[in-house]
Amino acid sequence: MELRVKYDDNQFHMTTAEKVQFMLRFIAKVFLYSALTLFVLIALMFLLYYGDRLYNKKTGTNKHPLFAAYIIVTNSMVPTINVNDAIVIKRTLKLNINDIITFSSTDPAHLGMTVTHRIVGKQESDNGTYIFRTKGDNNNVEDPTWVKEDNVYGKVFLMIPKLGFVRNFLVTPLGFILIIVLPFSLIIIYDISKFSKILKKKKEEEKII
């Protein structure tokens, strides 16, 4: 038995303009679907975030936000986390050695600064809470002060490489045009062109009838 597959030659004979149009529309769709997926995830995190904040306000508890995101600006955690990488942290009560945490520093030289380092030591204090010794993966020495449990914002559970570059590019006029305006414009132009061809074809068919 011989299996024959018939192909429509028209689908393999596209003009250069049609090929460019097809590729641009494909790229725009991929970007939009990716952006939509990211938007849904961010929206879900915001819902959980605000739900948690409302619950804390209602119960009178004073906790750090359930989720938070930061852009890394120093090389203290290289190569694990690089400059301009984005991290997402989650508030948690279970912290162990080797966890990477984000906290408010009590080091006099960096008092109040938000730091992201790895836990290298853990001790239980007299009041039953824990304190942590931290160190940057790229640092030669441990941080000079212990981190109290109350000063820990959360544990890093997601890292997005180089997202800081995207953020910095997006805030420029050129970046906004190339990343946001251009893809949407291409899709709109393509759909208008496609709709015009459909109308033109319909009018031609009506003339023939």
Main-sheet strand order equals: 1-2-7-3-4-5-6
Low-pLDDT runs of 5+ residues are 5-11
Strands, count: 7
**Rg measurement, Å:** 27 Å
Derived structural class: alpha+beta
Strand content: 15-25%
Shape field:
elongated
Terminal residue distance: 44 Å
**N-to-C series of helices and strands:** HEEEEEEEHH
- Helicity level: 40-55%
Could you describe the largest sheet, including whether it forms a barrel? 7 strands, antiparallel
> Helical region count?
3
- Give the overall average pLDDT: 82
Describe the structure.
This protein is of the alpha+beta class. Helix content is 42%, strand content 21%. The protein contains 3 helices and 7 strands; from the N terminus they run αβββββββαα. A 7-stranded antiparallel β-sheet has the order 1-2-7-3-4-5-6, with helices on one face. Strand 4 and strand 5 (130-135) form a beta hairpin. Helix 1 (16-59) crosses helix 3 (173-208). It starts with 15 loop residues before the first helix and ends with a helix. The model is unreliable at 5-11 (pLDDT under 50).
